[in-house]
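User: Reviewer 2 asked us to show a designed sequence for the structure in our supplementary figure. I'm pasting the structure tokens here. Could you produce the per-position amino acids so we can include them in the response letter?
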């Protein structure tokens, strides 16, 4: 399902929680099917994607100009900015390595990684994080 459509539907029907979880994915598809008309569904589909791309934006939502604002539950609850749920991303840990490249003629020194979390069993260039 398009991200814009997810945002519009989740706000309109106030779907709380992680939309990537199986139960909520299933619920979102049911809501989508319920809202999609039998005829001119292509026009509806484009319209809901455009609504999410132009008015029901992630941060700069424009509820005043939204054509469905009177039936939007997130707007009624004044919680538009909270829907859809945004998973807090873990901050990436920066790891620095210093490598020692030892070359003799056309040969390089490599070291076997043993009992390691990453690259276990592989041959690697010796580095500052090796035991």
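Assistant: Here is a per-position design you can include in the supplement:
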């Amino acid at each position: 399902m398009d991200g814009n459509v997810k945002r519009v539907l989740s706000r309109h029907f106030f779907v709380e929680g992680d939309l990537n979880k199986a139960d909520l994915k299933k619920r979102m598809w049911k809501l989508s099917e319920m809202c999609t008309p039998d005829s001119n569904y292509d026009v509806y589909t484009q319209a809901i994607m455009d609504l999410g791309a132009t008015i029901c934006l992630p941060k700069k939502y424009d509820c005043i100009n939204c054509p469905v604002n009177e039936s939007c539950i997130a707007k009624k609850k004044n919680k538009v900015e909270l829907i859809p749920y945004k998973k807090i991303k873990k901050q990436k840990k920066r790891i620095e390595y210093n490598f020692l490249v030892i070359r003799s003629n056309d040969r390089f020194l490599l070291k076997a990684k043993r009992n390691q979390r990453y690259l276990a069993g592989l041959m690697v260039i010796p580095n500052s994080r090796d035991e």
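For the response letter, you might also mention the following. The chain is about 30% helix and 5% strand. The chain has two domains: 3-82, 96-131.
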